[in-house]
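Q: Entry one of two.
A:
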Amino acid sequence: MLTFLLQSLDGPLNVFRYVTFRSASAFVTALVVCYFTYPAFIGWLRNKRMEQIIRTDGPQAHIENKVGTPTMGGVVMLAGITIAALLWGRLDEPRLWMVLAVTLGYGAIGLYDDWKKVMERSTDGLAGRWKLFWQTTIGFAVFAGAYLTGVMDARLHLPFFKHAIIDFSELWVGAPDILGWAYVLIGVFVLVGASNAVNLTDGLDGLAIGSTITSAGTFAVLAYVAGHAEFSAYLGIPQIPGAGELSVVSLAIVGAGLGFLWYNCYPAQIFMGDVGSLALGGGLGALAVITKHEMLLALVGGIFVMETLSVIAQVFWFKRTGKRLLKMAPIHHHFEKEGWSEPKIIVRFWIISVLLAVVALSTLKLR
């Protein structure tokens, strides 16, 4: 918004035109909003008894230490991200609105789920099939609109190789639109998968948000490079006009995440809830699809992939053998059962997340 107001000014205020400055400003704005809002919000949640409902079959330490901790902390994060993105982003860039639409839409699903759990004093919440239905519906609506208006094409870019592209619109010359829509469905799959993967990871204080911060920071770099004609050409990655604005949203997520982590680090004063985890996962998925790094998301968000695969493997193995592959899934609970302290698990997973982010960025030079 400030870009519109100040775009005609010269001199020192010309700095507002640069996406790097506006991205840094979005980071600071989201951080400040969250840091100063959470104390009052936590107090309000405590007064209203908006507490996290803890699984009775989980680790004993969770039952003893986490009962009574407020949830729905993602609400403030989403407010900080939205304010920062609208304040410092270009409002005429549809890709910015796409990421916000997915993030806030998935946040609404999570908010209803959290509210249902709190009101019913149950861990059930919104049925899984309805979560998937609304996640799919929102994702399809956003990507279908982008595809129909030409904002998003049907090209899938493969990582590690220059000019390795699968153009779905040209695979079937006789009916290009059919396979073009197949790419839209792939994008929706990425959204839903990323959203639920972050949700599964959100089980220890600071674990999910720490990994989200490194992932969002990585996509801030990828978005900036994808929106820069010279950098994208040099590195051999797809050049996406306007993608640089997504670095504003990405760093807004990083800033809001740090503001939340101040209160969510062990021992947590507040949990993000599904309103936070579903929204942040959806936002990361949207950033990956729009910047044409869908497949690289599996590496950037390797922690989320590992958590998801641990659940899938646990269920599969139990159905096949009647025995548990892990002591408990997701895998961070397995390490708790092994006797690792919660802070040790969290920090070690953070370290892995940072290493994966560095490896993902290094692959740009391998193309």
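Q: Entry two of two.
A:
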Amino acid sequence: MSVNTRSDTYSRRTLVALMEDKPGVLSHVTNLFRRRNYNIESLTVGHSETPGISRMTVVVYANDAVVEQVCKQLYKLINVTKVSEITDDVAVVRELALIKVHAPSASRAEIKQLVDIFRAQIIDVSLDTMTVEITGTEDKVDSLIEILKPFGIKELTRTGRVAMARGASTVNGARNGGGRS
């Protein structure tokens, strides 16, 4: 009788991919997910510390087998140079949200007090709205959104996860599992 060491449990998994900063590369990556019918929960892309290399953080709801398959498929793309899975225990994970909330003059002091409790910032004010910027864990962002809902959220945008390994560990260096050497 063999023991299955692979997890069949689906959970939110965070992958970080380094890729050449060239036109069409992001399209190739997202098409890979579409073709394989993998749902992307969040996707953030930006410049990395290396000129010409972008860093993509993608969150998928998957088990070990799906994550392994996604990594193998990403490595098949010529412009992808590195793929790593980052678990929440060994990473700094943050999200940014901008929240435009209905804020007539009678509500502003209460909204400001709530924003201060969450260490968020008011970054724009108009006659009847305030725009709040919050950075933190997804739970922190979710909590502030829930607390602001009764005031009336007019508009909301979130970056999705960005993640980085804690301490001296980096995504750079030797490749993780099954990639090109």
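A: Comment on entry two: Residues 11-86 form a domain with the Alpha-Beta Plaits fold (CATH 3.30.70.260). The CA atoms of residues 93 and 163 lie 4 Å apart.
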